[in-house]
Structure formats: structure tokens, C-alpha cells
Amino acid sequence: MLVLLVIFIITVLLLTHAVKIDLPQATSQPLLEKPEVISLSIDAHGKTYWNDVMFNQVDLKAKLEAAAKVESQPELQIRADKATRYQVSATVMADAQNAGMTKLGFVSEPQ
């Protein structure tokens, strides 16, 4: 029992050994502007809505390209109906990627 206690004490001392690092100091300001969020909705019939305004596929590509060129690129949140065909969602995602959108997210509802 004494041997186990000695081994435990030595092990604990080895685990608490930390490397001392002198980390650099930095200051930052909180982000005052919230980044713009674009809500791209796809209904069950495959129709796309840009912030609740219906767009066809050609106009949607132009809007995505214009949004990708903005200096602080907005976040694109895709809201697809659960009955939407996967091909429609995949096409919208491919169009967003081809336009240069880098911030892409999916919105769902918790169960």
C-alpha cells in the first residue's frame, strides 16, 4: 500500500508540471458592427427567397456575386424546407461557392 502511495505522489507531481511561457500581450476592441446576415430560403417547390423576396436562379447568381464582393462579406444562412429536393439545395450551395461566398450556414429547428 505504501508503494502505491509513493507512486501516486510521484505521478501527481509529474502531471502538475507546467511549461512556463511568456505570452505576448494584446488588446482588442469588441466588434461594434454585427455582420450582415442574408437569409436564403428554399420552399418545398424549389423557389428561392432572398430575405423573403422571391428570386429566379439567374437573379440569385447575380445577387450572390454582388454579396461576395462586399468588403465585410455577409453570412449566408440557408433555410430549406424539409421536402425540398436535395438537387435544389446543392445547386444553391454550388452557386454560392462559385460566386465566392465563404460564410455559409444551414438553419434548422430543434426537435
- Quaternary: single chain
Provide mean pLDDT, rounded.
84
Which stretches are poorly predicted, pLDDT < 50 over at least 5 residues?
none
Sheet-strand content, in percent, reads 15-25%
- Morphology call: elongated
- Class of secondary structure makeup: alpha/beta
What is the N-to-C succession of helices and strands?
A: HEEEHEHE
CATH class (first level) name: Alpha Beta
Second rung of CATH, namely the architecture: 2-Layer Sandwich
Number of helices, where a helix is a run of at least 4 consecutive DSSP H or I residues:
3
The neighbouring-strand order within the major sheet is 3-2-1-4-5
In total, how many domains does the architecture comprise? 1
Radius of gyration: 25 Å
CATH topology: Nucleotidyltransferase, domain 5
Main beta sheet: 5 strands, mixed
Straight-line N-to-C gap: 53 Å
Helix content: 25-40%
Number of strands: 5
Provide the descriptors you would attach to this structure in a database record.
five-stranded mixed β-sheet, elongated, 111 residues, alpha/beta, Nucleotidyltransferase, domain 5, single chain
Short structural summary:
This protein is an alpha/beta fold.
Can you characterise this structure?
- With 111 residues, this protein is of the alpha/beta class.
- The protein has one domain: 2-Layer Sandwich (Nucleotidyltransferase, domain 5), CATH 3.30.420.
- The protein has three helices and five strands, in the order H-E-E-E-H-E-H-E.
- Strands 3-2-1-4-5 form a five-stranded mixed beta sheet.
- Helix 2 (57-68) runs parallel beside helix 3 (86-99).
- The longest helix has 14 residues, at 2-15.
- The chain is elongated and about 75 Å long.
- The termini are far apart.
- The model has no long low-confidence stretch (mean pLDDT 84).
